[in-house]
Amino acid sequence: QKTCGECMAAGSPCGWCSQLNYEFLERCDLKDNLLRNKCDPSQIMTVQSSIYLNENKPPMDSDSVKNAIQLSPQKVTIKLRPNDPFTFNVHFRQAENYPVDLYFLMDLSQSMADDKVKLASLGDALATEMNKITKDFKLGFGSFVDKKTMPYVSTVPAKLENPCDEMQDCAAPYGFRNDLPLDIDTSRFKAKVNEVKVSGNLDAPEGGFDAIMQAIVCQKEIGWRNQSRKMLLFSTDASFHYAGDGKLGGIVTPNDGQCHLNAQNEYSESLNQDYPSISQLAQKISEKKVTVIFAVTSTQARNYYFYKTLSEFIEGATVGALAEDSSNIVSLVRDNYNKISSSVELKTKGEEDTQVIIKSKCFGSVLCDTAKCDDIRIGSNVTFDVTLMVTSCPKDKSKWKRTFSIYSVGFSEEVVVDVELMCSCNCEGPDQEVQRSEECSREGTLSCGTCLCNKGFYGKNCECSSDEMGTDDNLCKKSGTSTSKICSGHGQCICGKCECNPINPSDPSKKYSGSYCDCNNYNCDYEDGKLCGGPERGVCVCGSCKCNEGFQGASCGCATSKKECIASDGSECNNKGYCDCGRCRCTDVTYKGKTCEECPTCPTACDEKRGCVLCRAFKVYSKLNEEECSKQCDHVAVVQEIDKIDETVGQWRYCKFRDDSDGCDVQFKWNADNNEIKVAKSKGDVICPTPVNLLWIILPVIIGILVIGLLLLLIWKLLVTLHDRREYARFEKERENAKWEMGENPIYKQATSTYKNPTY
Questions:
Q1: What is the pLDDT of residues 81-93, one digit of tens each?
Q2: DSSP classification of residue 750
Q3: pLDDT, tens digit (0-9, with 9 covering 90-100), for 323-332
Q4: How would you classify residue 33: left for phi > 0, otherwise alpha for psi between -120 and 50, otherwise beta?
Q5: Would you list the DSSP string of 2-49?
Q6: Most exposed: 15, 34, 202, 223, by fewest CB within 10 Å?
Q7: Could you list the residue range(s) of the whole structural domain that residue 539 is in?
């Protein structure tokens, strides 16, 4: 970033140092880096996004004097820094008695005759039901058939007068007619519906799109109020014509989306303009903030699917199944109104080149990734988090100011957001910049501490001419030939001198050095995690460690002094090794430690005195014989209690060991100064284990085994006895029931046989 404005556009972490004679090439950097590089804090330029509430009226319910307010704030101005997301809150509260405009748009082709009759009879009930929802309610009525030309409508003269059978009195076909503009006197609705006649057409699809377009865009003629929930109930039993179908009747002019109602309140351009497209209709519905309810007869499942799919492309639209005679129209309107009014969804308009993300806190503090909340009731408060971000500053400064709006689907209220991009610094204004500044060799403009050079000049102070650029580059090559890299590839050649780049862009304080930027003072060996062992040992100079006095080696890790190798007895490495690089290298593998004085496998001082203690105090000669004991153990004295030894003289140490002969623990103390040993034979100082009486262990085990065996034997005998008794009882019962008489014995056979001759 070469200017302060470009630096601000890089994001909120960046700051610009406007200090004169700032020694670092990059003025745009992290604020911490600028401070570390000794930029005066008062000269660090930075900006933060902010918001100003131009209009912030609190939410309020509707009454006869004042309009309801549901969205707040109403208008804000946001100063937005590029690449710095900024979040503010928008609040929605559903108002009581919010105005409702309901326009009933009905298909009056002949197949809807019974629906018209039913609608007229239910007009009062519909008005009563809506008055329960809001006291500010208007009701209107419009009808449609289709374009008055072939192949949509029969052009036979008689059919143009009465398209129905001769026995029926039908109205002449028409495209769309506004029969009853929105009126607070809902009693007129029933009379008007009774008054109009059904009509007829030829093809199955109807001209409903023409009717919807006119009903939406003719706001004055229909009577739509600026602030109201605008609802259009579209009732039909047929599908629809759309853009392109007009060619069948020779109509090729696209629909212009404008209002064309004549003095008779009929659509005057029906035969001149094609049907609207779905996208054109959806755009107008969104623009005019109208909520469409498609009421399709339930017997037409295919058409219901068409309108269900259509509703997915139209903002806020819903679909309801209409009874065959429209008898459920009141409940359909009520249910769909409750469904629509219990949901609030925020959308944006005109936010080009501005990223807008809306998240909701429907109830509570949980933030959801959606701009929609359901189950909203009158008086409920909902908060939305709106986040804005711009990724770059347009070159055209007129685009640094922009406006967009946030609106709630189905309502005309909106939040107007004026955005001012912060793409420049205060020091860049005409009154702050210095033209032909001395700091810039009179060949540039001093702006925010840096020089903006005129054409043909460059350099930190515009001191270089572009005519000398080729010669200057050769001066920045180490070998002086054209094959070498300029500044070793680690810097920029400015006026024949190398300006070295940072080694790591994240830390500009660490740069390449040298006349040709060929030195790296941060690429040396490390010792103990520090470069060249740290400043107390050495410094890195052009890739090699330069050690301080008393240190040596590639990483200055070797101390030349042997001070750290002296053992406690004054010897070098305890005579168990040698001193290398200020550290002991132990040659005896049994020793280790800083000075080779630690020997984990060597006998301790307590172990060495074990034999004398046993022979002198207990006459046990397992370690030493009697002769050795008398010669070597004169320093051992037997006392009554070792706890009463005067320890003020010498360095007494406590020892304890277990005698292998009897398992007793023996305690004693010895004086490290004169090797004197004090051992006691008192009860408290000799701890022997209690002898184990094996008889008391063996006898209970034997008795337990016998008792358990007898119990198991008794249980087995009991089970066998019970089993035998059951078997014997069953045998006795079977024997009593047995019958062995000859007449009943199945295996009995008489001794004689009788044969009969059939002849006699």
A1: 999 999 999 999 8
A2: -
A3: 877 778 888 8
A4: alpha
A5: -SHHHHHHT-TTEEEE--TT-SSS--EEEHHHHHHTT--GGGEE----
A6: 202
A7: 530-559
